[in-house]
Every structure is written in structure tokens, then in C-alpha cells.
Design a protein that fits this description.
8 strands; 40% helix; disordered N terminus; alpha/beta; eight-stranded parallel barrel; 9 helices
Length: 227
């Protein structure tokens, strides 16, 4: 079978909402009393979120693993998928469902050495050349972005726009791979991103706009219902 043909390694049916739990973003909100990552994880799962990526770039390995263990357990109980950002070793040790990596991280092939052949592996792309390369990599889904301007993560790339989402969708769908769009996506912008060809929208800050945890749960429920 040619590369990119048929069912991809670690195949997953992507939910429309791909929630990213970024502990650094959460810590910068200044909520009183402070929200822990597990508070937010619980609120999202209760609202019906069924895919959560855990991102903890500032955490030590030990602290990240402890948090990943707890998030994976909660997701498993809720029937949700848990993806770990960057750290294939943390994903493997915590029993997470998969790993998401960027262009400057471990290659998808190397991720599979650590996380295993059945792991869900996602890869960030930002332009046509990277999208084309992704179709011959052992990935389960491809991410494209930032679609709109975002201050959440410095990628070194400007906003790619909806036209790039459409071009990426044509290429990755032909390879049998889902497309996740990320970057500055709000509840109001999500429909046009999905209409451009994305299978899922990855969201960080727009899921955290409420002033309390009850509001966080309601916001997540609104997202799930809207998509």
C-alpha cells in the first residue's frame, strides 16, 4: 500500500471540538480562586468534550507525568481521548491515547518508536510544503495553522487564513487523514473554519472566557452543542 493510502496509523474519528488544556495559558488567567488544570479537565468532560490535548511546556517532567496520569484517568472514565503535547515519553508512561508534535519536535516516526504503533500521532503544519510532507508521514491527523492571529503559542508563522485550510483539506483528505485547524478560532469563527474543510477545530482561550468554573462548563457545552 502506498504511503498515505488507506487507514492511517493510530486512526481516530476526530470530534468537531479539539480542546487544548494549556497549563501556562490557564495559569496566566489570574482567576481567583485559581483554577487547576484538573478543575478545567473535569468541567470540559462533564460538558461533553471528548478529546483533550494536555500541554504543559513549563512543567518539569515529573510534574507533567503526574498531571498526565490524572488527566488520562479522567478522560478514560469519560470515554474521551487524551493527547499529550510534544512528550512521547510522558504519553507512553501515562497511557495516553497519543501525542501531538510540531515541526521542531520529534518526527512522527520517532514518536511511534516511543509511543507505539497504535498511538494517535498528530503533526502541526503551517504551509503547503509541510502539508504535503505530512501525507507521507505515519500520522493519524494533520493540524494546520495558525488560521487566525493568536498570542497563545509562538509558532514563527503568521496567520495562514481560510484559503490555506481549504488547500490543506484537499491534500490530507486525499491521503485519508483528518485535518485539525488551530489558531485564534472562536465560537463565532468555527463554522467558517469547518466550512473551509477542517474536520475539527482546536481551541484554547475561547473555552476559558468565563469568570468561574460553572461558566467554563457552560461554555464548553455551548461549543459541543454548536458543532
Amino acid at each position: 500500500m502506498a504511503p498515505g493510502a488507506g487507514v492511517r496509523p493510530g486512526h481516530v474519528t476526530m470530534p468537531r471540538l479539539y480542546a487544548i488544556l494549556d497549563v501556562d495559558v490557564l495559569g496566566g488567567l489570574g482567576r481567583t480562586p485559581a483554577w487547576t488544570p484538573l478543575h478545567v479537565c473535569d468541567a470540559w468532560l462533564s460538558a461533553g468534550v471528548r478529546l483533550i490535548q494536555l500541554r504543559a511546556k513549563s512543567f518539569s517532567s515529573g510534574a507533567f507525568l503526574e498531571l498526565a496520569d490524572a488527566c488520562v484517568s479522567r478522560c478514560r472514565q469519560a470515554g474521551a481521548v487524551c493527547i499529550i503535547n510534544d512528550r512521547a515519553d510522558i504519553a507512553a508512561m501515562s497511557g495516553a491515547d497519543g501525542v501531538h508534535v510540531g515541526q521542531d519536535d520529534l518526527s512522527p516516526t520517532d514518536v511511534r518508536v516511543v509511543a507505539g504503533p497504535n498511538a494517535i500521532v498528530g503533526w502541526s503544519t503551517h504551509d503547503d510544503d509541510q502539508v504535503a510532507d505530512a501525507t507521507v508521514q505515519p500520522v493519524s491527523y494533520v493540524a494546520i495553522g495558525p488560521v487566525f492571529g493568536t498570542h497563545t503559542k509562538a509558532t514563527g508563522y503568521g496567520a495562514v487564513g481560510l484559503a490555506q485550510v481549504t488547500r490543506a483539506a484537499v491534500v490530507v483528505h486525499a491521503a485519508g487523514t483528518p485535518l485539525v485547524a488551530i489558531g485564534g478560532i472562536t465560537l463565532e469563527r468555527a463554522p467558517q473554519v469547518l466550512a473551509a474543510g477542517a474536520d475539527s477545530v482546536a481551541v484554547i482561550t475561547d473555552l476559558l472566557v468565563a469568570s468561574d468554573l460553572a461558566g467554563v462548563q457552560l461554555r464548553a457545552r455551548t461549543w459541543v452543542s454548536a458543532l
